[in-house]
From TrEMBL:
Name of the gene encoding the protein in the UniProt record: rpsQ
Gene Ontology BP, a term: translation
Alphabetic keyword roster: Ribonucleoprotein, Ribosomal protein, RNA-binding, rRNA-binding
Domain of life: Bacteria
Subunit structure of this chain's protein: Part of the 30S ribosomal subunit.
Gene3D superfamilies referenced in this protein's UniProt entry, alphabetically: Nucleic acid-binding proteins
Transmembrane segments: none
The family this protein is said to belong to: Belongs to the universal ribosomal protein uS17 family.
InterPro entries: NA-bd_OB-fold, Ribosomal_uS17, Ribosomal_uS17_bact/chlr
One Gene Ontology CC term in the entry: cytosolic small ribosomal subunit
Molecular-function GO term, any one: rRNA binding
NCBIfam families: PRK05610.1, uS17_bact
UniProt function note: One of the primary rRNA binding proteins, it binds specifically to the 5'-end of 16S ribosomal RNA.
Protein name, UniProt field: Small ribosomal subunit protein uS17
Source species: Pikeienuella piscinae
């Protein structure tokens, strides 16, 4: 099964080797047929503490690293 990749913005980098990423998606409301925004925060592993608040990042699913971390930051070269 392929791993999901999501894009978002870093909203917190206070913890060691962890960033909190806010991912927004747009959906159409089932009744109103209006486009609305839904957002969710994910905790992602950042091995070298490279990313800071405000950075745009891509995160990928991975095996659980802690109670709340199931994602890792993708380093694009």
């Amino acid at each position: 099964m392929p791993k999901r990749i999501l894009s978002g913005a870093v909203v917190s980098d206070a913890n060691d080797k962890t960033v909190t990423v806010l991912v927004e998606r747009r959906i159409t409301h089932p009744v109103l047929k209006k486009t609305i925004r839904r957002s969710k925060k994910y905790r992602a592993h950042d091995e070298n503490n490279h990313f800071k608040t405000g950075d745009s990042v891509r995160i990928r699913e991975c095996a659980p690293m802690s109670k709340s971390k199931r994602w890792e930051v993708v380093i694009d070269a």
